[in-house]
């Protein structure tokens, strides 16, 4: 049996693929012809890489028995992404995969989702739309939706909030413009996120077709301001002025998320990395990456 992963060249997907490979799984990754394989370099010879197009999609499923699809590919709508590009990554691609899953007898479809309200952005709206489609396939597949809180770690994309703040402080910029920072967030380290996916895969191995929803977070929230001040303290970048209140809150800003991790805890999963420890680890690794 094989596990097919989309978004494997991204931060989350590459970490999941590495854990799967380390566990001895047969892994197929779908990549676009423009994707960099840098994050897959360490285990490139242990996975099957397929460049994504319509013909390849059908051949992938026709030539091998795929047991599980893990859909991590996503377009956050940053860098002035076109709406059609967001729709293709977040809605059309996974819909094509759902249809192929039914056609070729795939057992399980795992979707990496967001906790953001659909009104926040086009990204959140398309993720919400696919979640509804995923539910509609529950009579045929084990449909698993994994809503992720704000995960972080060394090497994440520079547009992600924690990565942006860490790198700005490590670069010693004079000033960082921020909102007032009163909104709370549940920040979770990438290693805990990957272990959650591992627990979900193991926990749903014997499940019958249906819709199963999980929320992945630590269960502990801190304000954005406290998180940023913690990062500043760990980096020692006291010369950088944190300009809280320079930016307005975005429309439909969530001030305090509600995370229900009971279904995940029932699988035996608990987060192991505190925010302090996770940020210390991330900052140390980012410093090493900066040197090289």
Description:
- The protein is α/β, with parallel strands linked by helices and 292 residues long.
- It has a domain at 1-148: NAD(P)-binding Rossmann-like Domain (Rossmann fold, 3-Layer(aba) Sandwich), CATH 3.40.50.720.
- The protein has helices spanning 11-22, 54-62, 83-103, 122-136, 161-170, 190-203, 224-235, 262-265, 275-291; strands at 2-6, 26-31, 48-51, 66-71, 108-114, 142-148, 150-152, 175-178, 184-185, 187-189, 210-216, 222-223, 241-244.
- A 7-stranded parallel beta sheet has the order 3-2-1-4-5-6-11, sandwiched between helices.
- Helix 3 (83-103) runs parallel beside helix 4 (122-136) and helix 5 runs parallel beside helix 7 (224-235).
- The chain is globular and about 60 Å long.
């Amino acid at each position: 049996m094989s596990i097919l992963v989309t978004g494997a060249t991204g931060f989350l997907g590459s970490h999941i693929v590495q854990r799967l490979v380390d566990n001895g799984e047969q892994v197929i990754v779908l990549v676009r012809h423009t994707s960099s394989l840098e994050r897959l370099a360490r285990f490139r010879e242990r996975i099957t890489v397929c460049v994504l197009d319509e013909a390849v999609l059908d051949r992938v499923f026709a030539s091998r028995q795929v047991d599980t699809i893990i859909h991590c590919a996503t377009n956050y709508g940053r860098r002035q992404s076109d709406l059609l590009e967001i729709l293709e990554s977040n809605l059309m691609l996974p819909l094509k995969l759902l249809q192929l899953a039914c056609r070729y007898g795939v057992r399980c479809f795992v979707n990496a989702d967001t906790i953001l309200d659909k009104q926040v952005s086009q990204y959140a709206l398309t993720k919400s739309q696919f979640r509804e489609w995923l539910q509609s396939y529950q009579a045929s597949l084990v449909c698993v939706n994994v809503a992720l809180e704000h995960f972080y770690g060394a090497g994440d994309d520079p547009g992600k909030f924690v990565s942006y703040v860490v790198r700005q402080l490590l670069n010693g910029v004079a000033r960082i413009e921020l909102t007032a920072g009163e909104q709370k967030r549940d920040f979770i380290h990438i290693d805990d996120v990957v272990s959650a996916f591992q627990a979900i895969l193991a926990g749903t191995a014997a499940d019958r077709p249906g819709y199963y929803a999980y929320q992945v977070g630590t269960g502990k929230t801190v304000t954005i301001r406290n998180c940023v001040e913690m990062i500043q303290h760990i980096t020692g970048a006291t010369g950088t002025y944190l300009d809280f209140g320079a930016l307005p809150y975005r429309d439909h800003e969530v001030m305090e998320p509600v995370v229900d991790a009971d279904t995940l805890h029932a699988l035996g999963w608990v987060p192991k990395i505190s925010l302090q420890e996770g940020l210390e680890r991330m900052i140390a690794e980012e410093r090493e990456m900066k040197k090289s």
